[in-house]
Amino acid sequence: MAKRKGRSKTAYKNFIIEQMMSLGTYKEEYDVLIDTLAETCALRDKNLSEWNKWTKKTGYSMVFPYTNKNGSTNLTPVPFYTNNIKFNDTILKYGKELGLSPLSIKKSMLNGEEDDELETFLKESSSHDD
Q: Where are the alpha helices (DSSP H) in 4-101?
């Protein structure tokens, strides 16, 4: 597992706002979503750091043997691994909501063009009615 230096929530928030501003999609109303996304990114980084330490200490990365009360031993996912999946899913969800995924950027660009064409058509139609 690669070493990862985590950013703070504030650093992530500034980075997200900067990205949204460069895309022309930032609005103050999105700050609650941005805060949640930034916090999740920071928690994910902390989880990855702890996971890395745990892996070095135990030698287990994604699964480890767990013996239940009946004495059966099974491979069980490492909690850091399952947490990381949840963090990544949340980050992806909020990123899409804020228009930060390639697909959402493309959709917003297409929607903008469609709106402009519709507005032009409506203006032209109303001017012909007079």
A: 9-23, 31-58, 79-97
